Each structure stands twice: as structure tokens, then as C-alpha cells.
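Worked problem 6 (solution included).
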Amino acid sequence: MSDDNDKTEEPTSKKLEDARKKGDIPLAPETKHAAMFLAALAVMGGVGTLTMQRLSSILVRLWGGADQFRMEPEGAQAFATGLFLQVGYGLGPILGMLFGIALLGGLIQGRPTIAWSRVKPKFSKLNPVAGFKRLFGMQAFVEFAKTIAKMSIVIGITATVVWPKAVGIAALVGADPLQIGAAASTLTHQMLRSVAMLVGALALFDLVWQRRSFMKRMRMSIQEIKDEHKESDGDPKIKAKIRQMQMQKAKRRMMAAVPKASVIITNPTHYAVALKYDHGAMAAPVVVAKGVDALALKIREVATEAGVPIVENRPLARALYASAELDKPIPTEHYTAVAEVISYVLRLARQRLA
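Solution. The predicted structure is:
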């Protein structure tokens, strides 16, 4: 395991993506609190006023036209359906605003993800010793201290806003209810706005801090980066083993094709190239096997046992081995030289038949 002092490199995109899939992402709790206060401000503002107007209109219609509603089965169903639709229409702006702000609070912190490993039951969480450490550990103490500090600041800001207006509040005793409601609404809005500004600043600081802490925790050592590249590209030993198996398979396939070849062109000892040509069926001869040194010797042995003609042509053997591909027609620049070899082989075959 790498020591933390060795983790000096920035995390790779693969490690960050793997952490995201596991639900390990930088989350700033203060962002949720800021979203809550932003939603409260929106409700206290125009959205809340619009909702109250719509709901008030519904109540006026209910009380003013109560004698017009029929409560028999058909009338009761129509009444309930209409009432639910009107209430939903009235509460729609607030619900939409709350949903939008909650969604915005999540999107600000990063791309959303679903990590089933986070919700999977873990029996380790039932351990009372571990639970005691979570409740009374250093991290819990720090979070508790942060909560107390925030509450103190919020109370201080609230008192700062309310205290200068204490005389005005006392003068509202016995005032008209509408006047009291308007004053309370204005005072509440001012307090919410001040607290929301504070919580927003804390949320911004918390978001930056959580991201920096997360990136520091995700740092990698040079060895971890090498291991990741090795895992992504494949272990060199495994790749070498695969190449060896592929070469062995290709060798067996070549040896099986040698007895069906038309001619073997050799160096004579170091190179061997097996060509197959079927006049009328092929546009050009095809290389069915080729090899050097030990493999060339094996090709000649198999060809001799199968009675395939072997022709010595050192320049042509070297050229075909270097430029021709297995199971592909020979390059056009070698047509003339190969045609002479095949013509020679055909003349020998006719002479033997004669």
C-alpha cells in the first residue's frame, strides 16, 4: 500500500470516474442549507404571494358558493376532482420552485449519480463500538462544533436585524391585523435575506474546501498510475502469452497449408515462401506460408514429404518474405519473377507426365 507522502500526482480521470460510480464524490452539506434558505426567500417573495392569492381565491369560491355544490355521488366526485386540481394549480409554483432549487443544489456539486453500494446493507454498521466512534469521534465533535457556531452566528444576525426595530414592533400592539402581518412579513424577509447571504457564503467556502479535500484524498502515487496504465492496456506478460499463442496457431495453420501449395521458393536455407496458384480461379499467386531459419526448414520438410516443388531463388525468396503478407496475393512488382518460377514448375510437371 502506498504511503500518503508518495501520493504526489493528480488523480487520473479513470480513478475519479470509479470513485463517482461508488458514490464517492465531494459533497458540501452547506449547499443544501443555502438551497433551503433560497427556497424560503422565493416562497416569501413573489411565488409565495401568487400561491396565497390562488389559495385565497379557492377559499372565497368555497365559502361564497357553498350552496351551489351538490354532494350526491356524481356531484361529490366532480367537486373533489375540481378542488384537487385547483389546489395543485395553486401549490404548483411553490412545489416547482422547491424541486428546482433542490435539483440545482445537487447539480452545482457535480454530475448526479446512483451508487447502489451506498444503499446496500452493511452489517459492519451494526457494530456498537463503530457506532460509538461515529457518534463521539473527532469528526462528530467537529461537526457538532460547526453546528453550534452556525447557530450562534444565525442568532447574532437575527438579533442584529430585529433589535433596531424593537420599538416599531412594540408599537404594533393593538394594531390592525393586516398591518401586523405586513410588518411581520417584511421583518421575516429581511432576516431570511441576511441569513441566506451568510449561509450562501459558507456554502461557497464549503464547496471549494470539499473539492480541494477530495482531490487531495484522490491523489495517486507514481506506482499507482503505472499499475492503472498496466491494467488498462493489459499486463505485458499476458499480452506476450497471447501473442505467442497466436503465433503458434498461425504456424499450425501455415503448416497445414504447405502441402496444398503450388511451389516453395527458398534462399535456400534461411528463407522459405510457399505460394499457391490456381489458374483461372486466382488473379495472382497467394502466400500461404513463409518462414525464416527453423521455420523455413520445417516448411521445406513438409513440402518435401507432400511432393511440393521447391525452387531456389535467393533474391525472390528474400523479397517475398519481406514484402508479401500471409494469405494475401503477392505484390505486383513480383508478378514477373513469380510467373517465371510457376512456368518452370509447370514445365517440369508436364515433362514428368510425358
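Discussion: The two ends are 80 Å apart (CA to CA).
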